[in-house]
């Protein structure tokens, strides 16, 4: 009888630890309670490299996450919704940009605060946005302009 009681207690302890781990992991991934947060919206021409769960950063510090991405069928822009911490109140003229951590790094939403005296309300839209820049597109422009210049200069 003592062995079965010990086994039951050990099993219960393992289950409790597993449940605690799942709750901790869920909160870290943004599945926990969303108290202390508010949502903002922005429309981007391109959100390449951005997915639900991507960081939203201000001055390099994570202040929120992307919670929803949809295509607007009228404007053909990507509508992004992100959840920010309540303690971070952004001026109305703030900008949202799709930025990259470097050539091999991932993308994130960068917030550049404006100078307005009034702050964005929960559910408001950031009007000033800049979508992601395609590295391949930039390289093709550079190669194309170099080739065009060599033809006009008469260089081989």
Gyration radius, in Å: 24 Å
Please tell me the total number of domains.
2
Name the poorly predicted regions: none
Q: Which class do the helix and strand fractions yield? A: alpha/beta
The largest pleated sheet is described as: 8 strands, mixed
Count up the helices. 2
* Overall form: elongated
Which series of helices and strands comes N to C?
HEEEEEEEEH
Strand content: 25-35%
Compute the separation of the termini in Å: 92 Å
Mean pLDDT: 82
- Provide the helix percentage: 25-40%
Strands of the largest sheet, in order across it? 7-1-4-3-2-6-5-8
Number of strands: 8
Organism: Gemmobacter aquatilis
InterPro entries: ABC_MlaD, Mce/MlaD, MlaD_Phospholipid_Transporter
Domain Mce/MlaD: 37-114
Protein name: Phospholipid/cholesterol/gamma-HCH transport system substrate-binding protein
Outline the structure in words.
The protein is elongated and about 80 Å long. The protein has helices at 2-28, 135-153; strands spanning 37-44, 55-58, 61-71, 78-85, 95-100, 107-112, 125-126, 128-130. The protein has two helices and eight strands, in the order αββββββββα. The protein is an alpha/beta fold and 156 residues long. A hairpin with a 2-residue loop joins strand 2 and strand 3 (61-71). It folds into two domains: 1-33; 37-141, no CATH class. The mean pLDDT is 82. Strands 7-1-4-3-2-6-5-8 form an eight-stranded mixed sheet, with no helix packed on it.
Protein traits:
eight-stranded mixed beta sheet; 156 residues; 29% helix; alpha/beta; single chain; 8 strands; 2 helices
């Amino acid at each position: 009888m003592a062995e079965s009681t010990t086994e039951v207690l050990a099993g219960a302890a393992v289950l409790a630890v597993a449940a605690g781990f799942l709750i901790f992991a869920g909160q870290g991934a943004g599945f926990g309670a969303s108290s202390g947060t508010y949502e903002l919206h922005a429309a981007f021409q391109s959100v390449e490299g951005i997915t639900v769960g991507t960081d939203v950063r201000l001055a390099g510090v994570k202040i929120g996450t992307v919670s929803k991405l949809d295509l607007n069928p009228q404007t053909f822009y990507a509508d992004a919704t992100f959840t920010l911490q309540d303690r971070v109140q952004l001026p109305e003229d703030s900008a949202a940009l799709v930025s990259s951590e470097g050539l091999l790094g991932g993308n994130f939403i960068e917030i550049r605060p404006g100078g307005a005296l009034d702050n964005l309300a929960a559910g408001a839209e950031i009007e000033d946005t800049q979508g992601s820049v395609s590295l391949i597109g930039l390289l093709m422009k550079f190669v194309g302009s170099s080739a065009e210049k060599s033809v006009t200069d008469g260089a081989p």
